[in-house]
UniProtKB/TrEMBL annotation:
InterPro entries: MetI-like, MetI-like_sf. The chain crosses the membrane at residues 7-30, 77-96, 108-129, 135-157, 190-207, 242-261. It is a multi-pass membrane protein. GO terms for biological process: transmembrane transport. It is found in: Cell membrane. Keywords: Cell membrane, Membrane, Transmembrane, Transmembrane helix, Transport. Residues 72-261 form the ABC transmembrane type-1 domain. PROSITE patterns: ABC_TM1 (PS50928). Its main location: membrane. This is Carbohydrate ABC transporter membrane protein 2 (CUT1 family). The keyword Membrane applies. The lineage of its organism: Bacteria, Bacillati, Bacillota, Bacilli, Bacillales. GO terms for cellular component: plasma membrane.
Length: 276
């Protein structure tokens, strides 16, 4: 009985912590996005006396020749292409690393793990992209995002594939399947839980990325949604109502995606923790 009470207390504490950490800041952004310029400048959590949300949204969208719309297009393109490449290369690398067992495999695993530990170097990456004529291009930024998400994706796929029996591979080979056919027709369809995890977690991270587009994809025409906050503060230093409205607009898509796919994320991470 005492153990159950303690567990119940831990659950209540976790719920309260989530409210304090997440929902209160979201409420703060929402109520200030509904205020006018003077009310939002106070930056209080009080409910507004009049609702200016729709007028604020129209002003934010029209600012700087509809920069927010261009930013949504850039961020969506970046996210979709990066996720498609991540799913393919991470799944293939994880499959090879899990199935093969030789002297090289531990070293490959070490370098993949090092990708999670070693911080990215901005200046050398810019130099490499510039020499490849990919600096300030969408393709160059996609390569950066894929490289940064690669280690986590490979480890997740590798852990999940440990639960897939090798007998499936052997039976497919006996039936005449080659390597690519074995992977794409038999193994890859079994990876739906991990695919969902990678799609949601990486989509939120890439869509909300601020640093990489700032360094590797500069320019007003290349702005992503997070960079609109940076530009918006420069243009409207004291118009916090527009800033909070901008924050609200770019927060809603990842939030909705996370809420709808929350169970799939948990299932994929749990499945990826099982090793055969």
């Amino acid at each position: 009985m005492i153990r159950r009470l303690r567990l119940f207390g831990v659950e209540i504490g976790a719920v309260l912590a989530s409210v304090l950490i997440f929902w209160i800041p979201l409420y703060f952004v929402f109520v200030n996005a509904m205020k006018d310029k003077r009310g939002a400048s106070l930056r209080s959590m009080s409910w507004p006396t009049s609702n200016h949300l729709w007028s604020n949204i129209k002003e934010v969208i029209q600012a700087r020749d509809h920069m927010l719309i261009r930013a949504f297009v850039n961020s969506t393109t970046l996210t979709l292409l990066s996720i498609a490449i991540l799913l393919l290369v991470c799944a293939m690398a994880g499959f090879v690393m899990q199935r093969r067992s030789d002297r090289v495999t531990p070293w490959i695993g070490f370098f993949v793990l090092a990708g999670l530990i070693i911080p990215p170097a901005i200046v050398p990456t810019i130099w490499v992209l510039d020499n490849l004529h990919l600096f300030k291009t969408m393709l160059g930024l996609i390569m950066v995002e894929v490289a940064l998400g690669f280690p986590f994706g490979v480890l997740l796929y590798r852990g999940f594939m440990g639960a897939i029996p090798r007998e499936i591979d052997e039976a497919a080979v006996v039936d005449g399947c080659g390597g690519f056919r074995l992977f794409f027709q038999i193994i890859f369809p079994l990876l739906k839980p991990v695919n969902a995890t990678i799609i949601v977690t990486s989509s939120v991270a890439i869509f909300n990325d601020f640093t990489n587009p700032l360094y590797f994809f500069p320019g007003s025409d290349n702005a992503t949604v997070q960079l609109t906050l940076y530009n918006f503060m420069n243009q409207f230093v004291s118009q916090y109502n527009l800033l909070y409205t901008n924050i609200l607009l770019i927060t809603l898509p990842p939030l909705v995606l996370f809420i709808f796919f929350n169970k799939k994320i948990v299932a994929g991470i749990t499945a990826g923790a099982v090793k055969g």
